[in-house]
Amino acid sequence: MIDVICVFSLPLEHFLTLNHTCVSRCPSGTFGNKTSGQCDPCLSGCVVCQEAQACQRCLTGLYLQNGTCVVECQRGFPQGEECHQCAPECGSCKERSSNCLSCERRFLLLDNSCLSSCPKGYYDNSKECLRCPQHCSECSQDGLCKKCGDYYFLYDAECVDECPKGYFDNEQECMQCHADCASCDGPDQNDCDVCRNPKAVRYYGECLARCPSNTYHDENTNECKACDKSCLTCSGHEPTDCLSCDTNRRVDESRHCVWNSQCSMDSYMDLNGDCQRCHTQCSRCDGPGKDHCLGCNEPQLLLNTTCVKKCPLGYYIEDKVDRVCERCHPSCESCFGHHSQHCKTCKPGFFKQASSCVETCSESHFGNKTTMLCERCDPSCSQCVGSGNTHCLNCREGYVYMRPWGQCLKSCPPGYYKDIWSTDCHKCHHTCKTCNDEGALSCLSCYDGFTFEGGFCDNPCFIGSYPASKDLKRDDPKCRHCDQSCEGCWGPSMWQCTLCHPSHILADDGRCLSCCGKKTPRDDKPIPRECCDCEASYVRCILGVNFVMRSG
Fold this sequence. Notes:
This protein has one helix and 62 strands. It is mainly β.
């Protein structure tokens, strides 16, 4: 073979082609390499280039992006024969740089735009903004409603235009009535509007078998209402509705209770049978003192049997005509009515829930001991001890419980399985990556390098080592040492232990932790082995919490 050498004179340059010809311009798909003097090939798919890594034009059907030819644009969109870059926040885009199809981390996709946070009425699932359910103004990451728009009420994580039977509206939230009530305006047994038992009668909102003394049955409302204080029994609440009177008084023609000696309304009969004027503060009375009043002269108010300028704390004005001070519900410190729903402020030890004061907050709520308010649990929880989705005690239907994290999830995370007898998630055996039950024979998959054999994951390395990679020539595992805190492991981290040294225990988060030893909580009871030396875990154990918090 005869080598071809291209001879050229300045300024004209020639290059040797693959066909052993000398050309001043290299053919399509190659470029003139001034160092070698040859026509070297461009990158695959490139028809015009000036050097190997800098394509200028691609074959039909391919697009030019950053000097290379691609079938699909990466983080860009095709326009003509080239790829144009997406906006910085877009992970991918179409037709124009700001028309996003996906977003970079920290951004959320909504209507082909990438936002740093979702607007009101939307929730983020870590990748995009999704619309909350209808009429919902705020919802959780699972799309469960937390707060409804105007004129709608929250019921079972949905927004309804009217609370169902057996529930009442509490600040745009439907809450369950007491078991005695068919309908109600509050949570207590004395908040009934209609009784569940059709034969029962209501007395101050409470459902009773019969009306108590000094009351009458109003058949129009099915309520027991108080007689006037002058009556023993009555047919109505007016002083003219008396049916019987106490000793030394009788019912006159106008159905008033009057003294047997025909004393006037503003007088009483003494021990001698003579009529004596009431105390100057009383409009009606049954004795001489200012503590014998049955009614008061304006502007004073009747408090039990005395007249006062204003009702004291714990009382409210029941009847603006007769001007009577009545006691608030026992839970209220101050109020505007006798029901538990009529509290303004609460007595010490009670939590404020809307206009009620309760010792224990209703289901799906918890008592905030700092504000003494009942606050709503995360919608995934049916019971909780704090706000957010890491303080659940029980879960709503359709969710599973991750007790170590205090979370309610739609499914158990990798490395956990659902208990068939409950909704709890339990940790797989430490040798399993995924599993369907407890024990080393229930694995569904193994960590990299481990051998899967009929539900069992086998470590091909000696104890204290894990398979990092394989020797391609010998097909043997390359074994590397575990972290010094681990006796056995599936990876190099202190969070990847499968076996621990003596006197240490394997935590759910994969760490080997030393036990608390002789430390004891305030009640001097031994600390369980689950409580180990990370400070947060120890504190929670002292407080009586039986799970170890995930902590760094």
